Amino acid sequence: MRRGIKVFTVAVGIAKLEFYNNLRKAADVAEDGATIAFPSGFVHLPKIDAEFLQQLCAEQLITRRDRNGFPIREWQKMRERNEALDCYVYARAAASAAGLDRFEERHWRELERQLGLAPPPDTPLRTESLVSPDATPRGGIAVSGTPPGARRAGRRVIKSRWLSS
């Protein structure tokens, strides 16, 4: 922690590459034009204006050669304004830091339940609870409720705090 602020490094190049690859994904559409399914990572852009879209696509990945002839890939701005792309990159980094990359389907279902959203009609409803009744919601995500001081049976796992200090 530096001066009371926890600083994170963001791999902006990787996040931009992931975003542009996700923009290339197409939804599965039936013959009648109805959408069947969206692939994982599909980017939904409903009701956006042209300026926002131009800001999202304001950079391109180019390959240039260094003085020794080795290829170097770098992001080059094609437009002056790219705030929408920067916002996506930092939102993606925050989501990753919050653990959304590791969410399983059951986590998303529980989050939908907490928010009062109905599950999609094509998925079966689960009858068992995904968390214990004494779970306490923190930031919209349920935390399994193990009473303080209770020991869990099984092997003890020691985790390093080297990166968290």
UniProtKB/TrEMBL annotation:
Any GO molecular function: endonuclease activity
InterPro entries: GpA_endonuclease
Domain Terminase large subunit GpA endonuclease: 2-107
Positions of the UniProt region annotated as Disordered: 130-156
The protein, known as: Bacteriophage Terminase large subunit (GpA)
